[in-house]
Design brief:
alpha/beta; Arc Repressor Mutant, subunit A; two-stranded parallel ribbon; 5 helices
Length: 164
Protein backbone atom coordinates (compact mmCIF):
# COMPACT_ATOMS: atom_id res chain seq x y z
CA UNK A 1 0.00 0.00 0.00
CA UNK A 2 1.30 3.45 -0.97
CA UNK A 3 0.19 7.06 -0.70
CA UNK A 4 0.42 10.22 -2.71
CA UNK A 5 -0.89 13.75 -2.40
CA UNK A 6 -2.84 16.07 -4.67
CA UNK A 7 -2.98 19.79 -4.07
CA UNK A 8 -6.50 20.87 -4.98
CA UNK A 9 -8.08 24.33 -4.84
CA UNK A 10 -9.99 23.06 -1.78
CA UNK A 11 -6.99 21.70 0.11
CA UNK A 12 -4.55 18.83 0.16
CA UNK A 13 -6.01 15.48 -0.86
CA UNK A 14 -4.56 12.16 0.25
CA UNK A 15 -4.58 9.24 -2.19
CA UNK A 16 -4.05 5.65 -1.06
CA UNK A 17 -3.38 2.63 -3.24
CA UNK A 18 -3.40 -1.12 -2.87
CA UNK A 19 -2.38 -3.57 -5.62
CA UNK A 20 -2.49 -0.81 -8.26
CA UNK A 21 -6.06 0.23 -7.35
CA UNK A 22 -7.15 3.46 -5.73
CA UNK A 23 -8.57 2.61 -2.31
CA UNK A 24 -8.95 6.02 -0.67
CA UNK A 25 -9.21 9.65 -1.68
CA UNK A 26 -9.95 12.21 1.02
CA UNK A 27 -9.08 15.69 2.19
CA UNK A 28 -6.16 15.77 4.60
CA UNK A 29 -7.30 16.15 8.18
CA UNK A 30 -10.50 14.13 7.94
CA UNK A 31 -10.51 12.47 11.35
CA UNK A 32 -11.86 9.10 10.32
CA UNK A 33 -9.09 8.48 7.76
CA UNK A 34 -5.98 10.19 9.09
CA UNK A 35 -4.62 7.37 11.34
CA UNK A 36 -4.58 4.99 8.37
CA UNK A 37 -1.61 6.57 6.64
CA UNK A 38 1.01 6.79 9.38
CA UNK A 39 3.36 4.06 8.12
CA UNK A 40 2.54 4.13 4.42
CA UNK A 41 5.31 5.24 2.09
CA UNK A 42 4.92 7.74 -0.70
CA UNK A 43 5.47 6.45 -4.23
CA UNK A 44 4.76 7.68 -7.75
CA UNK A 45 2.46 5.05 -9.28
CA UNK A 46 0.37 4.82 -12.44
CA UNK A 47 -2.90 4.80 -10.47
CA UNK A 48 -1.89 8.04 -8.75
CA UNK A 49 -1.01 9.67 -12.09
CA UNK A 50 -4.39 8.63 -13.52
CA UNK A 51 -6.23 9.88 -10.44
CA UNK A 52 -4.41 13.22 -10.47
CA UNK A 53 -5.22 13.64 -14.16
CA UNK A 54 -8.88 12.91 -13.32
CA UNK A 55 -8.79 15.47 -10.49
CA UNK A 56 -7.13 18.10 -12.73
CA UNK A 57 -9.96 17.68 -15.21
CA UNK A 58 -12.61 17.78 -12.49
CA UNK A 59 -11.25 20.92 -10.83
CA UNK A 60 -11.14 22.67 -14.22
CA UNK A 61 -14.91 22.16 -14.28
CA UNK A 62 -14.76 19.45 -16.94
CA UNK A 63 -16.33 16.01 -16.85
CA UNK A 64 -13.62 13.32 -16.72
CA UNK A 65 -14.13 10.67 -19.41
CA UNK A 66 -12.84 7.77 -17.31
CA UNK A 67 -12.75 6.59 -13.73
CA UNK A 68 -9.55 5.45 -12.04
CA UNK A 69 -9.52 1.75 -11.09
CA UNK A 70 -11.04 1.45 -7.62
CA UNK A 71 -10.77 -1.21 -4.94
CA UNK A 72 -13.63 -0.64 -2.52
CA UNK A 73 -13.85 -2.37 0.81
CA UNK A 74 -17.03 -2.16 2.83
CA UNK A 75 -20.12 -4.02 3.89
CA UNK A 76 -22.54 -5.33 1.29
CA UNK A 77 -24.89 -2.45 2.16
CA UNK A 78 -22.14 0.19 1.87
CA UNK A 79 -21.04 -1.19 -1.50
CA UNK A 80 -24.66 -1.09 -2.70
CA UNK A 81 -25.02 2.55 -1.66
CA UNK A 82 -21.65 3.56 -3.15
CA UNK A 83 -22.64 1.91 -6.44
CA UNK A 84 -25.72 4.12 -6.56
CA UNK A 85 -23.59 7.18 -5.82
CA UNK A 86 -21.42 6.40 -8.85
CA UNK A 87 -24.52 6.76 -11.03
CA UNK A 88 -25.33 10.32 -9.94
CA UNK A 89 -24.42 12.35 -12.98
CA UNK A 90 -22.05 15.31 -12.91
CA UNK A 91 -24.01 18.47 -12.15
CA UNK A 92 -26.98 16.57 -10.71
CA UNK A 93 -28.01 16.09 -7.10
CA UNK A 94 -30.18 13.62 -5.25
CA UNK A 95 -31.35 13.17 -1.68
CA UNK A 96 -30.69 10.61 1.02
CA UNK A 97 -34.40 9.80 0.89
CA UNK A 98 -34.35 9.16 -2.88
CA UNK A 99 -31.43 6.75 -2.48
CA UNK A 100 -33.27 5.02 0.40
CA UNK A 101 -36.34 4.64 -1.81
CA UNK A 102 -34.25 3.21 -4.65
CA UNK A 103 -32.66 0.61 -2.39
CA UNK A 104 -36.00 -0.28 -0.76
CA UNK A 105 -37.54 -0.84 -4.20
CA UNK A 106 -34.53 -2.86 -5.36
CA UNK A 107 -34.75 -5.06 -2.26
CA UNK A 108 -38.51 -5.40 -2.44
CA UNK A 109 -39.08 -3.83 0.96
CA UNK A 110 -41.51 -1.12 1.96
CA UNK A 111 -39.06 1.38 3.44
CA UNK A 112 -35.36 2.07 3.95
CA UNK A 113 -33.98 4.56 6.43
CA UNK A 114 -32.44 7.72 4.98
CA UNK A 115 -30.22 7.76 8.09
CA UNK A 116 -28.87 4.32 7.18
CA UNK A 117 -28.05 5.69 3.75
CA UNK A 118 -26.27 8.63 5.37
CA UNK A 119 -24.27 6.24 7.52
CA UNK A 120 -23.10 4.27 4.48
CA UNK A 121 -22.32 7.45 2.55
CA UNK A 122 -20.24 8.76 5.46
CA UNK A 123 -17.93 5.76 5.02
CA UNK A 124 -17.31 6.47 1.32
CA UNK A 125 -13.55 5.93 0.97
CA UNK A 126 -13.17 7.67 -2.40
CA UNK A 127 -14.56 11.20 -2.12
CA UNK A 128 -15.29 13.21 -5.26
CA UNK A 129 -14.84 10.22 -7.61
CA UNK A 130 -17.67 8.46 -5.80
CA UNK A 131 -19.71 11.67 -5.61
CA UNK A 132 -21.19 11.66 -2.12
CA UNK A 133 -21.12 15.48 -2.29
CA UNK A 134 -24.07 15.24 -4.73
CA UNK A 135 -26.37 13.95 -1.98
CA UNK A 136 -28.34 16.54 -0.03
CA UNK A 137 -31.11 16.55 2.56
CA UNK A 138 -34.71 16.38 1.37
CA UNK A 139 -35.23 20.02 2.41
CA UNK A 140 -32.36 21.07 0.13
CA UNK A 141 -29.81 21.70 2.87
CA UNK A 142 -26.20 20.60 2.50
CA UNK A 143 -25.55 18.08 5.24
CA UNK A 144 -23.09 15.38 6.13
CA UNK A 145 -19.87 15.74 4.17
CA UNK A 146 -16.73 14.33 5.81
CA UNK A 147 -14.58 16.91 4.03
CA UNK A 148 -16.69 19.70 5.48
CA UNK A 149 -19.85 21.44 4.33
CA UNK A 150 -17.88 24.35 2.80
CA UNK A 151 -16.02 21.91 0.55
CA UNK A 152 -19.28 20.19 -0.38
CA UNK A 153 -20.67 23.57 -1.38
CA UNK A 154 -17.56 24.35 -3.45
CA UNK A 155 -17.67 20.96 -5.21
CA UNK A 156 -21.30 21.58 -6.15
CA UNK A 157 -20.36 25.04 -7.43
CA UNK A 158 -17.66 23.51 -9.63
CA UNK A 159 -20.35 21.29 -11.12
CA UNK A 160 -22.87 24.15 -11.18
CA UNK A 161 -25.26 21.81 -9.38
CA UNK A 162 -26.86 24.48 -7.22
CA UNK A 163 -27.19 28.20 -7.43
CA UNK A 164 -25.31 28.85 -4.20
Amino acid sequence: MYKSFYFSPLGKIVLLEENNYLTNLYFEGQKKFEPEIKDIKEKDLKIFKETKKWLDCYFRGEIPDYTPELLLKGTEFQLEVWELLKNIQYGKITTYKEIAQTIAKKRGIKKMSAQAIGGAISKNPVAIIIPCHRVIAQNGSLTGYAGGIKRKEELLKIEKSLLI
